[in-house]
Structures are given as C-alpha cells and as structure tokens.
Design brief:
Layout lengths: L10 H14 L7 H21 L15 H21 L4 H20 L3
Helix pairs in contact: 1-3, 2-3
C-alpha cells in the first residue's frame, strides 16, 4: 500500500500523520508514561545515529563527507519519536508552539541582557 503524503505540511499535519501511523501499527508504544518512556529511549538511540552521520569526534584527524540524506533521515526518526511521545502524553502541537514562543521570548531577553 503506497500512501501519498503532502510533504509541505506543518506541525499539525505531522502530529496527525504520526497518530495515523501509530494507529496503523496497532499502537506498539502503548499509552501514557510507559509510551513516553519508550519514545524517549528510541529518540536517544536515534540521536546517537545522528552523531554517527557527522564528524563529532574533535580528536579524529580524518573527516568523512557528511551524507546529508542519511543525516536528515536520522533527524526525522528523532522527530517522529518525540512527536509520538507528545501524542502519548496528550500534548498538542499548539502546546508546543505556545511553549516555543514563550521560550523564544526568554532566549531573546537573555541575549539582550548578555546572559
């Protein structure tokens, strides 16, 4: 089964698609805090895979060419598990956007105050 997905979607659409995907998979991560734990663990593993795609070892003399396509794929994996964790805890995209806007304001205030 091939599914056509609008790749020009926003955060709400991403949340909606992840919800549909988890339903299609039969909710393998569970619900609530147990699912959040699974998502955090999975995101941590995916973050390590992100590091494996870049030159993160400052002591290493030889540098590899970063494969941007693989890097983006690993970052998407991280994002999917983070969104799954939000869904498991009933955190909506609006909640994230509001918290992001508030944090952004704080960060710019810190810049102004030479924090």
């Amino acid at each position: 089964m091939t599914k056509t997905i609008n790749i020009e979607c926003g955060l709400k659409e991403f949340f909606d698609e992840q919800t549909k995907l988890q339903e299609a998979l039969g909710q393998p991560l569970g619900e609530g805090e147990a699912a959040l734990k699974e998502c955090v663990l999975a995101a941590q593993v995916e973050l390590v895979e992100v590091l494996n795609e870049v030159n993160w070892k400052p002591w290493k003399k030889s540098k590899k060419v970063v494969n941007k396509e693989l890097l983006v794929t690993e970052l998407v994996d991280v994002f999917q598990f983070l969104v799954n964790g939000c869904i498991a805890m009933d955190i909506k995209e609006e909640d994230l956007m509001q918290a992001y806007a508030e944090k952004l304001k704080i960060n710019y205030q810190r810049i102004e105050e030479n924090y």
